[in-house]
């Protein structure tokens, strides 16, 4: 199968629509990361996404819809506070988990009676979603557990000859996946942190909880990005605090000659004279979120062991950044 990267035009959207309604898969841009899209009503198309990604069958998908789509076609109840959240944050990087009407494929939510729905703000995503005018399930367009893609080229690197079309909408600005918020209860509960923070949600609706999975219970979860290792570059990745950085570098260099450090700009002072690559996340929350996945993929090219350093700021958007870093890392132990 030839994989084409096409700018988003009337012609490429027509091709994409044909692929979708024939049960195929199309990679699409969003403001957060690129997604691997398929028809949410088509069992075979949804199963094809799981197969192409190598995704565990108990890891739910998110349905993406355009701004004018009637949500009551696919959700069973719309609490008043969910309407307030949509008015405040959508279209944008917030996914809401509702009770489902059961109209979409049962494979989307892995047999649960809920459905995660998102309205992306990316113009290209909206053009695609309006062209097909159906919910499109679209997990991140990367091989399962690999680093999420923020460019069409990233998608191509993972899925060349595996999917027919990548809609090229340029570089993603957000850089980490959407916040996922459960709105099936009395108050919203964050299932996966992201660019919309718990504090922002609480400011709109008065309260917001936070979900902690019980890993020992083997429970089914309503959101992607909860139970499994994710976002990992193809090099060993370890996570340390800033205070441990120099000790970790020395230990890792003794283990392998190719070491790099990933951290916020302030860490540069710790490593400037050590002669190893430094992958600079930047100084602000926005910079660190938007650069994270690009730099994790860059690490694959420059090192065998990546030392990731926890940012000093650990609230707000940085909760989502740290969540991704921790899931990407295999260890927080300094080698001996």
Give a description of the structure:
- The structure is a single chain.
- With 336 residues, the protein is an alpha/beta fold.
- The protein has 2 domains: 4-210, DHBP synthase, CATH 3.90.870.10; 236-328, Rossmann fold (3-Layer(aba) Sandwich), CATH 3.40.50.
- It is 31% helix and 18% strand.
- The chain contains 10 helices and 15 strands.
- Strand 10 (189-192), helix 6 (198-205) and strand 11 (209-210) form a beta-alpha-beta unit.
- Helix 1 packs across helix 4.
- The radius of gyration is 20 Å and the shape is globular.
- The termini are far apart.
Low-confidence stretches: none
Radius of gyration: 20 Å
Mean pLDDT, all residues: 91
CATH class of the largest domain: Alpha Beta
Give the end-to-end Cα distance, rounded to a whole number of Å: 47 Å
Domain count: the total is: 2
Given the structure, what is the number of helices?
A: 10
Shape: globular
Q: How would you name the CATH homologous superfamily of the largest domain? A: DHBP synthase
Element-by-element helix/strand order: EHEEHEHEEHEHEEEHEEHEHEHEH
Largest sheet: 11 strands, mixed
What structural class should be given to the helix and strand makeup? alpha/beta
Count every beta strand, where a strand is a DSSP E run of 2 or more residues: 15
Query: Which fold name corresponds to the CATH topology of the largest domain?
Result: DHBP synthase
Helix content: 25-40%
């Amino acid at each position: 199968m030839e994989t084409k990267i096409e700018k988003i035009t009337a012609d490429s959207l027509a091709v994409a629509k044909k692929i979708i309604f024939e049960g195929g898969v199309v990679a699409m841009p969003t403001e957060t990361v690129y997604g691997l899209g398929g028809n949410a009503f088509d069992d075979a198309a949804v199963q094809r996404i799981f197969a192409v990604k190598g995704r565990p069958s108990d890891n739910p998908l998110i349905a993406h819809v355009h701004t004018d789509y009637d949500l009551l076609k696919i959700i069973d109840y719309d609490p008043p506070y969910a309407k307030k959240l949509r008015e405040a944050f959508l279209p944008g990087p917030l996914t809401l988990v509702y009770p489902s009407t059961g109209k979409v494929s049962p494979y989307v939510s892995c047999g649960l009676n809920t459905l995660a729905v998102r309205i992306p703000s990316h113009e290209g995503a909206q053009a695609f979603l309006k062209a097909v005018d159906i919910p499109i399930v679209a997990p991140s367009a990367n091989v399962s557990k690999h680093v999420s893609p923020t460019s069409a080229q990233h998608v191509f690197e993972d899925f060349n000859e595996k999917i027919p079309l990548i809609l090229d909408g340029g570089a993603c600005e957000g850089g980490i996946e959407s916040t996922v918020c459960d709105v099936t209860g009395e108050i919203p509960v964050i299932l996966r942190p992201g660019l919309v923070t718990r504090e922002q949600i609480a400011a709109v609706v008065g309260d917001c909880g936070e979900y902690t999975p019980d890993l020992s219970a083997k429970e089914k979860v309503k959101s992607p990005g909860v139970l499994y290792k994710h976002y990992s570059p193809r090099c060993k990745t370890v996570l340390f605090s800033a205070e441990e950085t120099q000790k970790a570098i020395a230990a890792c260099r003794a283990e392998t000659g190719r070491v790099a450090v990933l951290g916020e700009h302030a860490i540069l002072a710790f490593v400037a004279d050590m002669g190893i690559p430094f992958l600079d996340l930047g100084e602000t929350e926005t910079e660190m979120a938007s650069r994270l996945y690009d730099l994790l993929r860059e690490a694959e090219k420059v090192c065998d062991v990546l030392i990731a350093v926890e940012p000093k700021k650990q609230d707000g958007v940085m909760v989502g950044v740290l969540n991704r870093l921790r899931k990407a890392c295999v260890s927080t132990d300094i080698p001996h």
